[in-house]
Amino acid sequence: MHTPLIILGAKGRMGSTITTLALADPALEVKALIEREEKLKEIELSQPFKTSSLEEALQKFPGSVVIDFTTPKVSLDTARLCANLQGKAVIGTTGFSPEEISILKDLAQKTPLLLAPNMSVGINVLLKILPQLVTLLGEQYDLEISEIHHKFKKDAPSGTALKLAECLAAARKVELKEVARYCREGIIGQRPAGEIGLQTLRGGDVVGDHTVYFFGPGERIEVTHRAHSRETFAQGALRAAKWLYTKPAGKLYSMADVLS
Question: What is the pLDDT of residue 12?
Answer without folding.
Answer: 85
